[in-house]
Amino acid sequence: MRQVELGTTGLEVTEFFFGGAAIGGIGSAPSRVGLGMTTDEALERLDEAHEVGIRVLDTANSFAGGQSERVIGRWREERERGDVLVSTKVGNVVERGQDGISLAADHIERQLALSRSRLGTVDLYLTHASDSRTPLEETLTAFAAAIDSGQIKAFGCSNLSVHEAEAWLLAADRAGLPRPGWVQNEFSLVSRAGERDLLPLLAGEGVGFVAYSPLAGGVLTDRFLAADLESLPQPPAGSRLAVAPAMYAAAFTLQNLERVASVERIARECDVSIAALALAWLRQHPLVTATVVSPRRTKQWDAVTEALGTDLDDDLAERIAAVFA
Question: What's the pLDDT tens digit per position in 225-249?
Answer without folding.
Answer: 877 778 888 888 888 888 888 889 9
